[in-house]
Amino acid sequence: MAHPVPPARRPELPPVHGAVICLAAPCLAISPEHGQLTGRGIDGVYRAGLRLLSRCVLRVGGRDPVAVQGRSLGADRAAFTATVRTGAEAGPDPDIGVERVRHADGTERITLRSYASRPVRLPVELALGTDLAELAVIAAGRAGPELPAAVHAAGLRWSTGDTQAVVTAEPAPDDALASTGLLRWQLELGPGESRTIELRTGRDRTTRASAGQVANPLADARAEGDDPRVEAWFRTSVEDLGALLLRDPEQPGDAFAAAGAPWRLGLAPAESLWAARMALPLGTGLAAATLRVLARGQVDGRGPGAGMIPGPLRGAGPQLPPGCTGTEATLAFPAVLAEARLWGLPEEEVARLLPAAVACLEWLRGALGEDGLLADPDPGPRRCETQAHAYRAALLGADLLDGCGRPGAEEWRDRAARLRERFRAEFWIDGPDGGRPAAALHPDGRPLLRLTGAAAHLLDTGLLSGGRTAPGLLDRTRTEQLARLLGAPAMDSGWGLRSMSSREPGHNPFGHRSGAVRVHESVVAFSGLAQAGFEKEAAGLLRGLLDAAETFGYRLPEMYAAGQRTTGSAPIPHPAACRPAAVAAVAGVHALVALAGIRPDAPAGTVALHPLPGAPLGSLRLSGLRVSEQPFGVRVSRLGLGMVEEAADVLQLGG
Q1: Three-state DSSP class for 280?
Q2: Residue 144 burial by CB count (10 A; 0-12/13-18/19+): exposed, middle or buried?
Q3: How does pLDDT run across 188-207, given as a tens digit for each residue?
Q4: Which residues of 367-397 are buried (b: 16+ CB within 10 A; e: fewer)?
Q5: In this structure, are residues 215 and 620 in contact, taking their beta carbons and an 8 Å threshold?
Q6: Identical fold at 23-202 and 222-646?
Q7: Which residues on adjacent β-strands are paired with residue 196?
Q8: Cys-Cys crosslink for 155: which of 28, 43, 167, 306, Cβ 3.0 to 4.6 Å?
Q9: Nearest to 150 by CA among 164, 134, 171
Q10: Do the Cβ atoms of 522 and 515 come closer than 8 Å?
């Protein structure tokens, strides 16, 4: 009797939660905390997804240095400190210090310093190797063995087909053994002296590349306040987002934010758009470039998919089938363009992108069902967050059409009103505790009774002209109930918003849609609660996010696990999470700008301030932001009062 063959298991991603990642896209260096690249796992130096170096093991005086510290020095570089005891001195103290500074671009400086009281002669060896494997192949566990090396100038070379990697060293090694991939030096150090070896890894004869691969369109903004952590969080947000920027191959002058490192170091339409939207206070350049990149890939013609921005499916957890990120990106496009216009995107650029936004709205017109709701994919469930995205696209799209003197605004406001009416009738599930929104409606109309973090998008209605926010999908009473639910311990872990309530069956603190804290949903929930006036719940989420950011060295991963916060507890890394990730990287900017309540209307020449009452982080000052293409700065006092400190001459303070 034949036995059924079990389905093949998907390969597990190598864990990266303990890795030290240096990034200046498309360059990437992944190192263990001790700094030695051993040739195992995912560690290595990469360029455009190709591993140029997988092994770089240092020995000093015939010994492996004792690693004592590995730390990030910035988005694109890290330092690894180790010690060596040569035996030249009596006692247990190390007499040689080793510091390795590794850059994302493949440059590494190894500095050896002598603390001995007499001159020492040190043999130094570097064992190098690579498999020239693609990152996707490595992630699937299919990387091949190391390739044979050849001596090349002052270093080594590996090649296969049209691909090669070269490592050169300065000073040149005293000896190079291709058979073992070994470079050797004999160094003499007097007391207190140091010597440095610099390695350069590239695809050909290398000179040091600039760490910044893209002209950074982000403003040189700063944050400071009573809580000193806000400065580090804001600065790291800007640095990490800048490190994720990639050039569009079709138009190298246009940059977009890659979704995250190491697994998604490329264009992901939805995540790239959300990151550009959240970065609008740093200038409209990234949003404009991202919109141009996506407009070039928009489906044209007159078919059913016309106007859609293609995107891959994304897992939605065990409760729902995968969702379409193309739907999410298509709905986000007109909304991001409308908000970019309010932050000061030049009108000629708005006019250039308007046809693509109108095409997105036309796609939405055809995708809405007879009941006014949107399935994702069709036929499929009507997801709670998809209705929020569609509603925002309709309202902000109408605002955009009005502002640009184009017809159709009233039609889209009517469609938004119909969607709002149907959503309130179909999605809200009454109950003795006040009720809740359904996570989704199945195709047959049955509600999925799960409270998830996706409900946060119901509060994220976006900016309208005049500094106003769009009316919500829920009425005030139900909005208050949702705020209570999101602020309760079952959803607010104390470290951020859970992706599913801890009271729901199937809750998994590591589940990316069934319990883990997802930074994007957490910061969307905070900003939505702040805009809606729910100070207590908003402040709790903000403090939890900032505390989590501190725990992760201010580089928040895209998601992490969290039990209910107690004294001495901490958020737990998710082994497969990207870090940095675009929307998590810019979370610090989005949260602090939402705390200050900045609502610009550049076409009308106004900006309004609505700081969160109570000033949960004390006083706050943001400087170097951009409104109307000019520097903008604001201060919020300990009493929660906002004051503009710097602005373009054409701007006036609105209500």
Answers
A1: helix
A2: exposed
A3: 999 999 999 999 999 875 44
A4: bbeeebbbbbeeebbbbbbbbbbbbbbbbbb
A5: no
A6: no
A7: 111
A8: 167
A9: 164
A10: no
Q: Report the alpha-carbon distance of residue 402 to residue 359 in Å, rounded.
A: 16
Taking the mean position of all CA atoms in its chain, how far away is CA 59? 36
Cα–Cα dist 404/350, whole Å: 8
What is the average per-residue pLDDT within 55-67? 96
Q: At what angle do helices 587-596 and 535-551 cross, to 10 degrees?
A: 150
Q: Which amino acid is at 16?
A: V
Helix, strand or coil, per DSSP, at residue 62: coil
Contact 81, 99 (CB under 8 A): yes
Provide the pLDDT for residue 8: 45
- Enumerate the H helices of 344-383 as residue ranges: 347-367
Between CA 448 and CA 176 the distance in angstroms is 64
Task: Tell me the C-alpha to C-alpha distance, in Å, between residue 466 and each of 154, 295, 401, 635.
Answer: 63, 27, 15, 21
Per-residue pLDDT of 79-136, as tens digits, reads: 999 999 987 777 788 999 999 999 999 999 999 999 998 999 999 999 999 999 999 9
Smallest CA-to-CA distance from 593 within 503, 545, 523 is with 523
Architecture per CATH, domain 23-202, reads as Distorted Sandwich (2.70)
**CA nearest neighbour of 482 among 511, 453, 505:** 453
Q: Could you say which architecture CATH assigns to the domain 222-646?
A: Alpha/alpha barrel (1.50)
In which element (H, E) is residue 276 found? helix 269-278
Please report how the helices 229-243 and 535-551 are oriented relative to each other, as an axis angle in degrees rounded to 10.
70
User: How do 652-653 and 182-189 pair as beta strands?
Assistant: unpaired
> pLDDT digit string (tens) for 453-468?
999 999 998 889 888 8
The CB-side HSE value for 606 (13 A sphere, CA atoms) comes to 12
Task: Domain ranges for the chain, please list them.
Answer: 23-202, 222-646
Residue linked to tokens 């590239």? 202
DSSP element (H, E) containing 464: none
Hey, what are 386's tokens?
């998809």
Note whether 118 and 150 are within 8 A (CB). Answer: no
pLDDT at 576 over 70: yes
Which tokens hold the place of 199? 């390695």
Sort residue 266 into left (φ over 0), alpha (ψ -120 to 50) or beta: beta
Q: Which residues contact 582 (CB under 8 A, 6 or more apart)?
A: 241, 244, 257, 258, 259, 260, 268, 271, 272, 274, 275
Which position has the token pair 């805009």?
531
Tens-digit pLDDT profile for residues 163-176: 999 999 999 999 99
What are the beta bridge partners of residue 58? Answer: 126
Q: What radius of gyration, in Å, describes the C-alpha atoms of the chain?
A: 27
Helix ranges (DSSP H) in 268-322: 269-278, 285-296
CA atoms within 13 A of residue 613's CA, in its CB half-sphere: 6
Residue 484 has pLDDT above 90, yes or no: yes
Phi-psi region of 193 (alpha: psi -120 to 50; beta: other; left: phi over 0): beta
Predicted model pTM: 0.93
* 273, 290 contact by CB (below 8 A): yes
Tokens of 292: 């141009």
**Quick check: bond before 14 cis, omega within 30?**
no
Residue count of the chain: 655
